[in-house]
Each structure stands twice: as structure tokens, then as C-alpha cells.
Amino acid sequence: MKKIIIAxxxxxxxxxxSGANAKLSNGxxxxxxxxxxxxxxxxxxxxxxxxxxxxxxxxKLIDAIAEIEEINLDEVKxxxxxxxxxxxxxxxxxxxxxxxxxxxxxxxxMLSSAxxxxxxxxxxxxxxxxxxxxxxxxxxxxxxxxxxxxxxxVLEATKANEKTFETLVxxxxxxxxxxxxxxxxxxxxxVEVKEAISKMNEAGYSDVIISTTYQSxxxxxxxxxxxxxxxxxxxxxxxxxxxxxxSFKDEFVELLKTSLLDSTKVINxxxxxxxFKVYDQKTYDLLxxxxxxx
Amino acid sequence: MNYKELIKKYWFVGVVAILFxxxxxxxxxxxxxxxxxxVSGLTHDGKDVxxxxxxxxxFYADDLYNELxxxxxxxxxxxxxxxxLLNKEIETTDELKTQAANQVAGILQTYDEETIASAMAQAGxxxxxxxxxxxxxxxKYTAYMKKLYTDNYDAYVxxxxxxxxxxxxxxxxxxxxxxxxxxxxxxxETYKYNPTQEETDKLNxxxxxxxxxxxxxxxxxxxxSDDTSAxxxxxxxxxxxxxxxxxxxxxxxxxxLKDGEISGVVETTYGYHIIxxxxxxxxxxxxxxxxxxxxxQYNVNxxxxxLVAKTDEYGIEIVDDNLKKFxxxxxxxxxxxxxxxxxx
Lengths: 294, 344
Hints:
The structure holds two protein chains of two kinds. By secondary structure, chain A is α+β, with helices and mostly antiparallel strands.
């Protein structure tokens, strides 16, 4: 008897190598049958699972998380319905009918996005300190020029209060946006500019910062192929306005909610918070491509 | 104790050792190959769980089935039925298997595994390993459609031949640089040509050559045509009315020609054209994918309708009411309406 039990356990160990496959309760129900073959619900289930159904799972998860987090789903639905009414007033009813198949489908699809927005807001509000460290935001005006002389001229004129920094930037042929805005560690700025800002402890103007980029190109004539590397310098001037994030906390949190936080990060947070676990191998494989799954 | 007695006494140890080694090999291969984590299963309330979140939120396999079924259930079930019917209708011959294997080799050389797996999934097949089955099923489908069209030429093909006038078109183009397009009051366009002497001479030379029966149209096109098709004897390939994008005067002339006929001088905004056509046989057209696609556009769902009508013949019983309803409403509605009308 002992030997049989051990043998069965070993065989089970072998089959366990392939990962769990969550089965239907009524998988044996027949869809159609031939003389030698039966196609069941279990077969249909496997056929449908051969496609990528991760979006279905994520939608259901968002609903579940919203319930756990006690988000007022009725209120969210009302907001979505209001936005639908506004779209209709603006003449988009036929557009919605064509692209979404009608009001009900539109609301169903928009609801998931709306709930995720609420979760993002909640996440930003409740994780401010961690996000502050992660993004290291600061307020600044940043402009660049094509030559060092112009950059220095603008810098000197700004310091002498001749005109505002924005006006001088515009007047001296720069195409950069010198309005005051919040930048973060993730902002698209050259490494040299980020390094210079990290060393600035007080508000004020930087020295001119030189950023060099290299672009490779290949030219071909009738006889040979020539590789060229073109070096381009840009000359940056930074007006650091404020590094004290707490003094512009509301603006930073608003930016987090509207653009800085991506949905995957937010969903991952709530999956970890609520001990999300998967018990089906195919589902695990699909979700783990983009999400942190246990 | 001799070795036979040793084996008799300790046989079970040997079995355990072998199974353990097999386990190590399989597990290592799986892990190395996929670098994936293998999840364990969970049952709750007697049902298999897909995921759990929070203290008490379970999503069961039954729930996932319902969600997937709402989106694709009927079409997925029908596709499986269709495949069974197709396999009954078209035998899996060694020739088809070899053709499929050759297709697989070609695909594997051209595309990476991820791209192939994604395309397989969209077609309802799971993973790269199903590629042979996918290619075989595609070849069987093509074989079925060719047989269907051949056996039902009058019903499914003749109207398309009439409407589309498929033909292989060749032409010789003499470009005229100075062409003025005049839009008439009725919206039509006419052209005012100001050809150079060289352009006129070239056209006349072509017209003279065409009178010489020892010289083929293709040879004249290669020598004189200003179009890029000159290198292939002026051939533009198979054209059909709905899919060609020729300018109107060219299309009007080309689709009016009989088999082997050569047009007069056709004037378009590009210059002067001389056009000829050859009308392919139906057997030749069946080997052309563009033609098969046009046939399919004219005969919507004829593949599904004709196969599903054979369920009784092949002893297939559809048990699921949803699938029956799907077939009745989408494929058999017209046929049933006709039968009802005849009965009345």
C-alpha cells in the first residue's frame, strides 16, 4: 500500500510540472458530438482561452478593487452617464453608436476607465510621501539655445532684470517652452541639465549648461558607404523656482493623477495591497507579461 | 544474494529512482525553456479558482467562461464545428501534409516565435506547435472551396465572372509629356495631346510592329513601352473590375476586349496605350488568391452555410441550444425562408 501511495505521489509530482489549469464545474456538458468525438464546454473553454483575455481579467480586477476600496460605483456610473449626455448634446451620438455600438456598451467601457481614474486619485493622495521621493519634482523654467553666446546674453539680461526670462527666451530665437512648470526625474531633459539641477540647493539661475548629442548617419555614393557621426551642442539655461515639493503639493498631486502615474503602476499597487494571487497557469502567463503577479 | 534476487527485493526503489530522474529532467527542461513560475491550483466552494483578491473575492473558471462566452462563445464553438466538418469533407492526404510542412518551414524562417504564436492565437490555435495543424487546415479549406466552386460553378462563379471579367492585361505605353486634361461640363475629362515628333514616331513604330505577326506583343512592349511593366513584356497581371485601379479610359478599353484582342490607341493622362488581354481558364483562376478573395466577397458565408448543411450527413449532433440558435439565425435563415416559401 505504501508503495502504491508513493508511486501515485511521484506521478502527481510529474504532472504538477506543467502548472495548474482551473477547470469548469460543468466542463463535460456537450456542445456537439460526432460518431467518434465529443466537443464539450471544456473544449470550448480551452479554445476561447487561446486568445489574449488579459483585458477581461483586468476589467474584473478593477471592479473588485473598487469594491474593496469602497469606491462609490453608483456615483462613478452617474458621472459616466453625464459625460455620455454631454457627448450627445455636442452631437456625438452617431459617433458613439458607430464606434461603441450604442449607449450601454459605451458606458460599460468607459466605466472601467472611470473607476481606474478614481483608484489613481486615491493612490496619489495616499502615497504622496513615497511618490515625492520617487519623482523628485521641482519647479523651473528651462530653455535652450543653439549657441553659447546667445545663452549667456539671455542669462545676463535676465539677471539684470531687463526683461522676464520668458520674454528674453522668445526674443532670442529659442523654440523651447520657458514657462514655469513642474519637472521630475522622469522628465525628458538631458543628463547634464538634471545633474546641474541636482546640485542647485536654492532657487536661482544656473550657469549655461552644455548638452552634446551625437547622431550617426550612413551616406552611400556609387563607390563606398561612409559612416558619419554628427555632434550637436545645445546650451541650456535653468531658472530653478522651487525644490520644496510640499509648497506645491496640490499641483504635484494633480499632475500625478492626470499624467505622471500610468495605469499599470496603479494596478500593481492595488494587486500587491490586496494580496492578489492567480491559480490558473494560462492566466498567470498572460498577466505576468505586464503586471506583478503572484 | 544474486542480482535476480536483488532486483526482486528492491524493484520499487528502482521505479522511484527512475520516476525521480524523469521529474528532474522534465522540470529542468520546462524551467530552462520558459523561465516561468508554475502556479498551484485552488478550489473554493467546490469550484476551481482563476484568481483571488482581498479576503473573499474569488473569480472562478466558470466566471471566466461566461465572460469569454459573451464575447466569442458562439463563433468559437462554430469554428470548432466547422473544423470537424472540414476534416470530414477533405481527407488528410500525404500530399497535403507535405505541403503543410513546407509552409511551416517557410513561416519559421520568416517570422519569430512570438509573432507566430500571436497569429496562431488570433486564428484560434494555441502556440507555435499548432502551426502544422494551422497550415494543414488552411490547405484543406482552400481545397474545399475550390471543390465547392467547381461543383457549383453556375451558382457561385458564373455571376462573378460576368461582373468582374477577370483577365490578364498587358499594355504598351508611349508617354506623352505635354498632355492637357480638360474637364467638361458634364464632369468627364478629355485630353489635349501635344506630342513631340519623337513621341509620335515611337507610336507609329509600335503600330507598324504590331502588324508583323512574327513579333509578339510582349517583345514589342519590352522594346518600346515607357511603363515599368516593359521588363515583363508589358504584363500588368490579373485584373478584375472591382479591384483594378486603372484610369477610366484604360479600364473601359481593357475590360471590353475579347481574349487575345489588341486595342486601338487608348488615350489617358499618361499618354498612348495599346492594350491586349488573355482570359485565364477557370482552373487557372482557382490558383489565384486575389480571385478566390473576390469570389468569397460575392459568396458571403457560402463556406459555412454549405458545410453546416452537412451536419446530418456526417452524423453530427448539435446539442447546445445557443449554438443551434446561432447557426439558424446566421447561416440557415435564408435557406429556411426559401423552404417556407416553397412549402406555402
